[in-house]
């Protein structure tokens, strides 16, 4: 998978009813602007209603695909509830039913979480986000600590074994199960109604979304990158604000295009 800068271009329109599309949307940096701390993101007024209208327009084929736990997505978007893949695909909810993600915490991951939490507490500006089935170490408020944070996480990984991997993102790294993949989450949804048989559209902002882009492109779908940075996505919008404006237009009946 080679990343490059997409040029200005226009995605094919989906027609006025968008019945042929299935939408897969990242959360942080895509639907909402990034914040210094994960808990500080702000959901724009009316976003939940817009997503509901767009879901109806797509025959129900809209899902959130995020690194957040599904329960946290629900808190931010309450009272609106959507199909979702959380923790990069560790959790999946479809038609109100949790299909994956149940099970006790891994004792090894608990040990890693405690060690990285202690490390973060010794270094102001670092934040350890314990998601239960994964842990994320953030250095957005202390960029000078990136190398040390990466080294600490690498040492912690040695305690876990081959069933785990490190995934990097914007000022963050995450230790998560090796099977977790946004691409896998997208493919799983596309095997279920109402997503089955539709043309997938994946929208994201980070390197963590690139495998999702790759999956939909292999299936003849559309990949849209939000913000800057190299990507395999052919299409780009400059910011979450621009994407929310586009979502509103789509929900109001405009063709699904960039």
Automatic annotation (TrEMBL):
GO biological process, one term: trehalose biosynthetic process
Coiled coil region boundaries: none
SUPFAM superfamilies: HAD-like
Catalysed reaction equations from the record: alpha,alpha-trehalose 6-phosphate + H2O = alpha,alpha-trehalose + phosphate
Any Pfam family the entry gives: Trehalose_PPase
EC number(s) stated in the UniProt entry for this protein: 3.1.3.12
CDD domains in the record: HAD_TPP
Superkingdom, natural source: Bacteria
Keyword annotations from UniProtKB, A to Z: Hydrolase, Magnesium, Metal-binding
GO molecular function: metal ion binding; trehalose-phosphatase activity
Cofactor: Mg(2+)
Entries under InterPro entries matching the protein: HAD-like_sf, HAD-SF_hydro_IIB, HAD_sf, OTSB-like, Trehalose_PPase
Pathway: Glycan biosynthesis; trehalose biosynthesis
Physiological role: Removes the phosphate from trehalose 6-phosphate to produce free trehalose.
Entry similarity comment: Belongs to the trehalose phosphatase family.
Identification of the protein by name: Trehalose 6-phosphate phosphatase
Species of origin: Alsobacter metallidurans
């Amino acid at each position: 998978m080679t990343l490059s800068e997409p040029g200005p271009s226009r995605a094919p329109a989906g027609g006025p009813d968008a019945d042929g599309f299935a939408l897969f949307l990242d959360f942080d940096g895509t639907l909402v602007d990034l914040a210094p701390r994960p808990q500080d993101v702000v959901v724009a007024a009316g976003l939940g209603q817009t997503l509901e209208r767009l879901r109806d327009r797509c025959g129900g084929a809209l899902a959130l695909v995020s690194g957040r736990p599904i329960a946290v997505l629900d808190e931010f978007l309450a009272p609106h509830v959507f199909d979702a893949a959380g923790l990069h695909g560790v959790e999946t909810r479809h038609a109100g039913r949790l299909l994956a993600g149940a099970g006790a915490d891994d004792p090894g991951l608990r040990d890693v979480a405690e060690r990285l939490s202690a490390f973060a507490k010794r270094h102001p500006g670092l934040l350890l986000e314990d998601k239960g089935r994964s842990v994320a170490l953030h250095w957005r408020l202390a960029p000078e600590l990136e190398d040390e944070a990466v080294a600490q996480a690498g040492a912690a990984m040695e305690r876990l074994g081959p069933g785990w991997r490190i995934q990097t993102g914007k000022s963050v790294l995450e230790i998560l199960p090796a099977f977790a993949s946004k691409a896998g989450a997208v493919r799983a949804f596309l095997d279920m109604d109402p997503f089955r048989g539709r043309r997938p559209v994946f929208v994201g902002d980070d390197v963590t979304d690139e495998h999702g882009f790759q999956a939909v492109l292999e299936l003849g779908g559309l990949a849209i990158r939000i913000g800057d940075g190299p990507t395999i996505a052919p299409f780009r919008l400059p910011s979450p604000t621009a994407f929310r404006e586009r979502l509103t237009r789509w929900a109001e009946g405009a063709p699904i295009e960039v």
